[in-house]
Amino acid sequence: MGQITQATQGRQMVQADPARDIRDMVRNAWPQIEKVIGGNLKPDMLLQYCISAINREPALKQCTPVSVLSCFMQCAALGLKPSNVDGLGQAYILPYGNKNHGGQPDATFVIGYKGMLKLLENSGIYAQPVAVYEQDGVKLRMDEKGTPFIECPDEINLDADHSPEHLKFVFLSIDLPNGSRYASYMSRKDLEAYRDRYAPRSKYKGNKITGPWATNFVEMGLKTLIRRSFKYLPVSVEAKTATTVDETTPDYSSVLAPQIDDAMTPVMDATIDGPEPDPGDDSTSAEDRVNAKLFDLTNRFKALGVTEEREACATISRIVGRQVPGYADMSEAEIDKVLDDMDHGTKTGGE
Hints:
The chain is an alpha+beta fold. The protein folds into three domains: 1-111 and 235-274, no CATH class; 126-232, no CATH class; 284-351. 41% of the residues lie in helices and 13% in strands. The chain is built from 13 helices and eleven strands. The strands form five sheets. A three-stranded antiparallel beta sheet has the order 5-8-9. A two-stranded antiparallel ribbon has the order 1-2. It has a two-stranded antiparallel sheet with strand order 3-4. Strand 1 (7-8) and strand 2 form a beta hairpin. Helix 1 crosses helix 2 (43-56), helix 1 packs parallel to helix 3 (65-77) and helix 11 (286-303) packs parallel to helix 13 (332-343). The longest helix has 20 residues, at 18-37. The chain is globular and about 65 Å long. The chain starts with 6 loop residues before the first strand and ends in an 8-residue tail after the last helix. Mean pLDDT is 79; it is low at 1-16, 260-284 and 346-351. InterPro entries: RecT_fam (IPR018330), ssDNA_annealing_RecT (IPR004590). It holds the Pfam family RecT. GO terms for molecular function: DNA binding. This is DNA-binding protein.
């Protein structure tokens, strides 16, 4: 996603009362916000979630109010509930990640492994990942087709040590609606390699790993395994796109205008604590990148009151200079051209 703008009325958004600023933005931009999040939340509930999270996580007070509100909007748009409010672990709004030009941190949107499961359920796929520990006596096997499966002992070892340092592997098996089965696993060594490569580190703590990987290793391992499965499963476009916006600062600056002044744009600071990239062999795939841009594009049209794909494509066709029947028919270059057009204030209505 793009970087979120961080100033209001030509001045930096460093306010003494973030709850008041969020309340003002919700009130002034609610019609646009509602088009993005749908009927998932009412304005008073969205505001209550934000203020409750700030009270429970005081460090969020140091984050830009725009980034905090944007994270909650992203959460609501995906139909997830923030754990900062209900403690269920579907999603988290965390005070680490990007910093703007003034050095003020932005809040970061992080989907929990239970949130990943919820996104699967929304696509009609039900799964329960398993964390296997050294003393469980569970064995990992592979069938003649190369599909992994686990072999459980006759008796459960009730005295098995289930502390994170004794995790052996995480396993995921799903029976798909078409009768086939998807299964995958990651060993502890795989998880540690992934963590060491992508987890945020603090230069103030000797480059030590920080964030969820430092405090919730098992849960992050389960989440990583589930998130990797999305590219192989028949999930919705929204679910696949969710994996690309995970652990980012969402950009809803166009929705929150005129509360935000575009004079300042924050940049990623690679030397500070930051969220990990999306999982994959080396980098985010081209498909994931395009899905993320399409997600951004559709949200921008919704914010402008354009909810029908046909109506949006009529505008898109004029911008790119050819007939575009649907979002899926656009090239990445055309998506970029439309986003750039919207960024520079060209009208996107039906006139």
